[in-house]
Design a protein that fits this description.
heterodimer; A: alpha/beta; Rossmann fold; 20 helices; B: alpha/beta
Chain lengths: 581, 193
């Protein structure tokens, strides 16, 4: 059967066809849908882990137990999982183990543009890179075979364009694979120096063997067409090159590490001008040059996404560039949703002009005008530890004017470590957990605080207050973030304390719990003075009519959070009723 | 044959479903098809764009500059963001429904009415219709996508029955007859303008 699947849906299907037993992942764009789709495969145990390091370790345990295991993450997630990755390369695997890492060239929804191919070289592990959905599924199946053949984890790299593009996929039957048993072999799995020293030699030898394997592996393909023009490329770039130069010869790398040097050399003797085209870092270029190969590398941007148009611009000298003549259009940046309750605490923070160390997730949107209530955002969990650093650097003084804000899922990911550290080291910063009962930014996944698993089963629901008490926090406050006055009072009190404080704002995300949505509100124009105070909330449902000097609410967007009712000084806003006049 | 369709609009307007339906219709009509969209933050009112490429063999999932055959704008100004994709044969299907960007609602920028007028003139063929009004006349604002697909379907070589079956399969069960009604209404716009 042939069907259209996104790259991510195809990876999930591949996990099924490859007879994977255990998948553990943390959500992150553009990787989330792989694991989310596994909900539809009852034979696969799939879970949301609290972070990528834990996820990879769960997969490693399943591999040790003799079963096929997988973990999927966004590029920056692999930084978190890098610790187990580097040493799993030494231990090797029992059941097949595959790590799918999704890069985000162009940074459609990421904080950096790192090229994860370096991790393959760094960890001395093989990395495959599919170029469409069919290959996503097939390469995953082959990755498990390679993992078991060479007894090592295998990396698969995707990018946003591959993960989120749909193309044809032929669905096949599930493979029958040999079921393994738990491996009791401490010399292999206990990485004390004596064992690790022996293992490092094996890792180096394995890499040579992998290179020999990829020299002949059918998965790397030579397409001989033109004798004059050829390209070396991999992944989605292959499709771009084919689009622009359908008649060129192509050496299509399925494995971007290690490289089949002999075969590439052979290709170079058959085609006159061979260019390397890649996205982000000159990874293939450096590898091939280090091997002494003479390849051409066009001048291309290192930053941002590659595209057929960029390839045309490089090679086709007479290409007509079509520019958009309308370059000053009002933008549509993402925004906190109309009715997001947590806008209230940002409004309060903004009003008190506090310095805010921020974190990853929806709440990064508090950075935008008019709230302007985020002053730093580096990585998952950094808000709490950075606030502690500011506290210590200013002898506690700046903590009176600063807060750390972090979402529920991000807190459980790696924020919790920073909080334990701050308690232990007698910090006096103020931490706010904005608890919206879901992992919202990536599309509303469950987490330990929602009490529901990936497969929809109910489980223990983590209690932030009890947790904070156990960590040793003395000042724990909860507040409804839509109660702006109370938010302001509590923020003043807690930031003034010479002790660490935790404020928890609990209100469900509109998309996680539709019951928080209530009747829309509207503005009575005879009461509205045009003071624009309600506009300071930055709610997408509120607009300003310049001619009339009045604000109004779009009732199709309003979710009845009543924040604007609370900030309006003229009682002009009330529940919407159909006017009978 | 290669047909490049660019669907543009605002998060929440049903662009992803509409592009899924078009892609599936093309697949069922034995064409190769690839589609790509940038989403993720689209639910939060951001601009959304979906590239759909239909042909005997499709490589890149994204349309090149100057290569769009159709620009389907689900919102009145959104097509202006993608003018680099048009050529002198590109057709514009424009839903004249207006959704103000935050910079307009906050009074910082004006909605670009004159640019819209200017932009429409740059297409050799343009159809304008208020899909929201048409949808409301059918009785459900959520059939906008089906109306727009209907308007597009007149220009594509796919059979009516494949469109009909695909729409019925992909929309919520209790809305299928309304969506087919919307699809037919959309066909009338471009058949008898």
């Amino acid at each position: 059967m042939i069907t259209l699947l996104s790259g991510n849906e195809a990876f999930a299907r591949g996990a099924y066809e490859a007879n994977v037993k255990v998948v553990s992942s943390y959500p992150g764009t553009p990787s989330t849908e792989i694991t989310e789709n596994l909900r539809n495969y009852p034979l696969i145990y799939a879970e949301w882990a609290v972070n990528e390091k834990v996820a990879l370790e769960v997969a490693a345990g399943a591999s040790l137990a003799g079963k096929r295991a997988m973990t999927c993450m966004k590029h920056v997630g692999l930084n978190v999982a890098a610790d187990p990755l580097m040493t799993l390369s030494y231990t090797g695997v029992n059941g097949g183990l595959v790590i799918i890492v999704c890069d985000d060239p162009g940074m459609h929804s990421s904080q950096n543009e790192q090229d994860s191919r370096h991790y393959a070289m760094f960890s001395k592990l093989p990395m495959l890179e599919p170029s469409d959905s069919m290959e996503a599924k097939e390469f995953l199946i082959q990755a498990f075979e390679i993992s078991e053949k060479f007894e090592c984890p295998v990396l698969i790299r995707s990018t946003t364009r591959l993960s989120h593009s749909k193309s044809k996929v032929e669905l096949k039957e599930q493979k029958i694979t040999k079921e393994g048993n738990i491996e009791i072999n401490p010399d292999k799995w206990v990485m004390v120096p004596a064992n690790a020293k022996k293992k490092h030699i094996i890792v180096e030898e394995r890499l040579k063997q992998l290179q020999i394997f990829f020299e002949t592996a059918e998965i790397n393909k030579t397409e001989l067409n033109s004798k004059n023009l050829g390209f070396i490329c991999s992944g989605i770039i292959y499709q771009y090159v084919k689009e622009v130069f359908p008649d060129a010869s192509i050496f299509k790398l399925a494995a971007v590490y290690p490289l089949p040097i002999k075969r590439i050399n052979e290709f170079l003797t058959k085609v006159k001008d061979v260019y390397i085209i890649e996205e982000l870092d000159p990874f293939l270029e450096r590898e091939l040059r280090a091997e002494g190969l003479t390849v051409r590398t066009p001048k291309r941007p290192i930053c941002g996404e590659m595209s057929p148009d960029i390839i045309k611009n490089i090679f086709l000298k007479n290409k007509k560039t079509t520019k958009n003549i309308y370059n000053d259009l009002p933008a549509r940046p993402p925004n906190l949703c109309a009715g997001c309750a947590h806008r209230g605490i940002f409004y309060a923070i903004s009003k008190l002009k506090l310095f805010v160390t921020g974190d990853i997730g929806c709440y990064t949107l508090g950075y935008l005008s008019p709230l302007n209530a985020i002053h730093s955002c580096i990585c998952m969990g950094a808000s709490i530890s950075m606030a502690h650093g500011i506290d210590k650097a200013t002898d506690g003084n700046y903590s009176k004017k600063a807060v750390a804000v972090i979402g529920d899922s991000t807190f459980l990911h790696t924020g919790i470590n920073g909080l334990i550290n701050a308690v232990y080291n007698k910090g006096c910063s103020t931490v706010i957990i904005l608890d919206n009962r879901t992992t919202a930014m990536t599309g509303h996944q469950d987490n330990p605080a929602t009490g529901i698993t990936l497969k929809g089963e109910s489980t223990y629901k983590l209690n932030f207050i009890e947790l904070a008490k156990a960590l040793g926090l003395k000042n724990i406050t909860t507040v409804d973030p839509t109660d702006v006055e109370k938010c302001i009072t509590i923020l003043k009190e807690e930031t003034n304390k010479d002790e660490l404080s935790l404020i928890i704002t609990t209100k469900a995300c509109l998309y996680a719990d539709k019951s928080v949505i209530s009747n829309p509100h509207s503005i009575e124009w005879d009461k509205c003075t045009g003071c624009k105070l309600c506009l300071k909330l930055g709610c997408p449902a509120i607009s300003f009519n310049i001619e009339e000097n009045k604000a109004s609410i779009d009732i199709t967007l309003c979710t009845g959070c009543t924040l604007c009712v609370k900030v309006c000084k003229f009682s002009a806003i009330s529940e919407y009723t159909t006017n009978d006049d | 044959m290669m047909t490049n369709v660019l669907m543009v609009g605002v998060g929440g307007q049903g662009i992803i479903l509409a592009s899924d339906i078009l892609s599936e219709v093309a697949l069922l009509s034995n064409y190769d098809v690839k589609k790509n969209e940038i989403h993720g933050m689209s639910q939060r009112g951001g601009a959304v764009v979906s590239h759909i490429r239909i042909g005997n063999k499709v490589y890149a999932p994204i349309i090149s500059e100057g290569a769009a055959d159709f620009i389907i704008s689900f919102e009145k100004m959104e097509f202006l963001r993608y003018m680099e994709y048009i050529n002198n044969r590109t057709m514009l299907l424009l839903n004249t429904q207006v959704i103000y960007p935050l910079s307009v609602t906050s009074g910082k920028a004006a909605y670009p009415n004159s640019l819209i007028e200017d932009g429409i003139k740059r297409f050799t063929k343009a159809y304008q219709f208020d899909a929201l009004e048409l949808a409301l006349s059918i009785g459900n604002p959520r059939v906008i996508s089906s109306i727009i697909l209907g308007a597009l379907s007149v220009f594509l070589p796919f059979s009516y029955s494949i469109w009909e079956n695909t729409i019925i399969n992909r929309v919520p069960k209790n809305t299928s007859s309304l969506n087919i009604k919307g699809f037919n209404k959309g066909r009338e716009i471009t058949k008898n303008p």
